[in-house]
């Protein structure tokens, strides 16, 4: 593959297909698959990722906000889309664009019914979320009777699914807590289904849930990070392929003398005669300031080069004293070999934050 001549995020659709098929292989044939494409498809490109997943016949897509769902509809995506965190101000748009809201509180339930009835909707699909331990969004277990009583008084909406979210499905120290969540979800859904005259789908598992808790796959699973190449464990990472590679180039090189400083606030002081490289990538592109001052690194001609000084808005400087390189050479921030999870770990964060931080001003290039 030709080496890059500018900062670019390469997105490998073949790797996406591999990850989708691998995760699907963990499921029963009748278990549906919801692909999470929120946050620009975890920092890649939501439209192109959704289009590719649609060709793979994914059952559902999920976004966080209404605006994200509208962008997919504008791009021609016809797959059902669940909006995970809708707000009442967007309810008319949700109905107008055939998006399906998560209903997670009495306020949201009441206001969506009001809008649906005003628009003469009949059996508009919604998804009811219960809180089983994450304590973020969702009705409580004690709300089941209240929710069902509201539903039984209107024909404007119908519950397509009931769902919850596991808090620590990747953590082997929290197996008992996860099992408690699964049991709580089962209790909630058993009661819910006994009070309503139809059978909504059930879904609980995220990527790590799919891998670690096959007994809780229910009717559908929701996969996000796994689709993008990360399994939340070293073992599962080997079975997945990161879809994104962030690459750049060396713009300029400098020879600096002992005690000379580099960057804003003179944050780095040379320990001897050193060679530095400046790269067109900064905190406005997603390389946050936490990566500066030798916490973060890049790879130049296969060798690790620490980021020195403070990260600038549009540039970073790296120490290439012991690396054979020149201006115009390719730089790897992360790819399939040098994984974003390793970059994240070095700075005390997680792969989710590293990949979703990549700015939309970085050019996207699709391969395979």
What does this structure look like?
It is a single chain. This protein has helices spanning 13-24, 38-43, 46-55, 66-74, 91-96, 106-118, 144-151, 175-195, 207-212, 234-237, 340-346, 351-356; strands at residues 8-12, 32-36, 60-63, 81-83, 100-103, 124-129, 157-163, 201-203, 220-223, 244-249, 252-256, 261-262, 268-269, 274-279, 297-300, 303-308, 316-319, 330-334, 363-367. With 368 residues, it is α/β, with parallel strands linked by helices. The chain has 2 domains: 31-228, Alanine racemase (TIM Barrel, Alpha-Beta Barrel); 244-367, Lyase, Ornithine Decarboxylase, Chain A, domain 1 (Beta Barrel), CATH 2.40.37. It has a 9-stranded mixed β-sheet with strand order 11-14-17-16-15-18-10-1-19. The protein is elongated, with a radius of gyration of 24 Å. The model has no long low-confidence stretch (mean pLDDT 97).
Report a brief summary of the structure.
The chain is an alpha/beta fold. Helix content is 29%, strand content 23%.
Q: What does the secondary structure layout of this molecule look like, with pairings?
A:
Elements: E1 8-12, H1 13-24, E2 32-36, H2 38-43, H3 46-55, E3 60-63, H4 66-74, E4 81-83, H5 91-96, E5 100-103, H6 106-118, E6 124-129, H7 144-151, E7 157-163, H8 175-195, E8 201-203, H9 207-212, E9 220-223, H10 234-237, E10 244-249, E11 252-256, E12 261-262, E13 268-269, E14 274-279, E15 297-300, E16 303-308, E17 316-319, E18 330-334, H11 340-346, H12 351-356, E19 363-367
């Amino acid at each position: 593959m030709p080496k890059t001549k500018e900062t670019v995020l390469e997105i490998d659709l073949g790797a996406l297909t591999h990850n989708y098929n691998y995760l699907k292989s963990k499921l029963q044939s009748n278990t549906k698959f919801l692909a999470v494409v929120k946050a620009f498809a975890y920092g890649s490109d939501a439209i192109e990722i959704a289009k590719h997943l649609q060709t793979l016949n994914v059952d559902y897509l999920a976004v966080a906000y209404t605006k994200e769902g509208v962008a997919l509809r504008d791009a021609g995506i016809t797959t059902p889309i669940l909006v995970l965190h809708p707000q009442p101000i967007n309810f008319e748009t949700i109905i107008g664009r055939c998006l399906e809201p998560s209903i997670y509180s009495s306020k949201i339930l009441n206001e969506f019914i009001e809008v649906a009835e005003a628009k003469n909707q009949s059996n508009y699909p919604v998804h009811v979320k219960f809180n089983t331990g994450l304590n973020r969004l969702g009705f409580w277990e004690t709300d089941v009777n209240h929710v069902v009583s509201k539903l039984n008084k209107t024909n404007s909406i119908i519950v397509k699914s009931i769902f919850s979210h596991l808090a620590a499905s990747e953590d082997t120290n929290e197996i008992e807590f996860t099992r408690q969540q699964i049991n709580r979800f089962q209790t909630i859904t058993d009661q819910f289904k006994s009070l309503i005259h139809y059978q909504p789908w059930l879904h609980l598992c995220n990527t790590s849930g799919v891998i670690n808790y096959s007994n809780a796959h229910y009717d559908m699973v929701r996969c996000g990070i796994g689709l993008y190449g990360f399994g939340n464990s070293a073992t599962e990472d080997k079975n997945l392929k990161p879809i994104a590679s962030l690459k750049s180039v060396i713009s300029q090189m400098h020879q600096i003398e002992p005690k000379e400083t580099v960057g804003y606030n003179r944050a780095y002081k040379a320990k001897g005669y050193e060679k530095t490289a400046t790269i067109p990538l900064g905190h406005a592109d997603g390389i946050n300031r936490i990566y500066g001052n030798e916490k973060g690194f890049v790879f130049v001609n296969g060798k690790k080069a620490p980021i020195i000084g403070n990260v600038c808005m549009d540039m970073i400087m790296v120490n290439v004293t012991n690396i054979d390189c020149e201006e115009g050479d390719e730089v790897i921030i992360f790819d399939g070999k040098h994984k974003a999870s390793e970059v994240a770990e070095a700075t005390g964060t997680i792969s989710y934050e590293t990949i979703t931080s990549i700015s939309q001003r970085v050019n996207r290039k699709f391969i395979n």
